[in-house]
Amino acid sequence: MFRFDADLAELIFDYCRQRLAMDPVSLDFGGSAPPSPDVLDGLIGPRPNAPHTVLSVFEKELAPAVVSADSPRFLAFIPAVPTKASLLFDMIVSCSSLQGTSWLEAAGAVMAENQALGVLSQLAGLPESAGGCFVSGGSMGNLSALLVARDTAAARPSGSPARPRVAVSDEAHSSVAKALHVIGAEPLIVPTTDHRLHGDALEHALSQAGDDSVVAVVATAGTTNAGIVDDLAGVGAVARRRHLWFHVDGAYGGAALFAPSARPRFDGIEQADSLVIDPHKWLYAPFDCAALIYREPTLARGVHSQHAEYLEAFHEGVVEPFNPSDYAFHLTRRARGLPLWFSLAVYGTDAYRDAIETVLATARSAARLIDESDHVELVREPELSVVLFRRPGWSRPDYDAWSTELLTRQLGFVVPTSWEGEPVGRLAFLHPNTTLDMVREILDTLA
């Protein structure tokens, strides 16, 4: 199992070449066309199988049952469109068995990851001393940051409450509620205005609470459902005045910091104590990759650093160690930030700016197509790259049947959502190669 097999390598490389060369990438069918229940029968047992036999099962039976998130017709949830350079370098990370747990083991990988984190930190306007690590996704980033917020609350003038609370809006990502449950904190739900959290609403809610139990506030820089950016400047100002930890969840929308046309929407993000941006979403990196950045990394290290006899070497005898394991709720980790680092270095940040601006322009143009249509209505103007629309007279089963038909015909992967209690359609744009003709083709099926 551990001897190089040239034929096996070529078999895998040939498949990867074919996949990388797809233009465009096909959608495939996901769970709408699952494989036969017996397709894997007997495949794993005491005796070996020929590699080409196993790969054939994957290629012909399993792969078509996975919807390709990197297809320009994938417009559901939040797509993922890794650059070719990032995909290829991810192969190097795997083939080299690279991990990025500690400085002692992986100083070279950590240096490169930190350079990529520095690009994002600088875009957000955080101080040069800011830093953090790459985690698996926004859920892990939110959990890790809020754990630091809870455990550093003792340094506030009012001290640490017995039962801490965190101010959140009713539009916060579902992972925030899960994170609060895990860390034993209660949410203080702050009402939104037009689905946006504002500083004055936060101030009012805190005053109404009448105690010092709130230790942090979470703002969203691009809600998943509609791409709305909270009043970061106003929320951040209240957080500073009241000595609250200010966490910004920019898992999806934070990538738009690269785009000059969208940058003003994020004014105030520079006040964040912690920030999450997922490169595996709109920064064109492979799964799984989320950037977790702290204004003061030493605070996170004091909370997350793990100590055991066998880990003493991480912290002793190394000059100025920077251990990614010290900045989130994890220990062993793959060097998941390296594909992003390689892609940024190969293509340059201007290419990222242009790709994101292209997507923003496509979203605005799609909104105009909907506005001009006789059979669909625009729900609201897009702020980033999510466009909501409704088909008058349709119920949820109508949208579901339409979604299934779109995927069956391979025209698009679009799933409905809910908006103010009613079912609506949702287009999430991330691929720069999604064309208006594709959008028009999808919208025409609604006639």
Please give a quick description of this structure.
This protein has 447 residues and is α/β, with parallel strands linked by helices. Helix content is 40%, strand content 12%. It has helices spanning 6-21, 51-62, 84-95, 103-124, 138-151, 174-183, 199-209, 232-241, 279-282, 297-304, 312-315, 338-347, 349-372, 396-408, 436-444, and strands at residues 131-135, 165-169, 186-190, 214-220, 245-249, 274-277, 290-294, 377-378, 386-390, 417-419, 422-428.
Rg, rounded, reads: 23 Å
- Content of β-strand: 5-15%
The secondary structure category is: alpha/beta
Q: What's the number of helices?
A: 15
Distance between the termini: 56 Å
Mean of all residue-level pLDDT scores: 96
Order of helices and strands: HHHHEHEHEHEHEEHEHHHHEEHEEH
Helix/strand layout:
Elements: H1 6-21, H2 51-62, H3 84-95, H4 103-124, E1 131-135, H5 138-151, E2 165-169, H6 174-183, E3 186-190, H7 199-209, E4 214-220, H8 232-241, E5 245-249, E6 274-277, H9 279-282, E7 290-294, H10 297-304, H11 312-315, H12 338-347, H13 349-372, E8 377-378, E9 386-390, H14 396-408, E10 417-419, E11 422-428, H15 436-444
Parallel strand pairs: 2-3, 2-4, 4-5, 5-6
Antiparallel strand pairs: 1-7, 6-7, 8-9, 9-11, 10-11
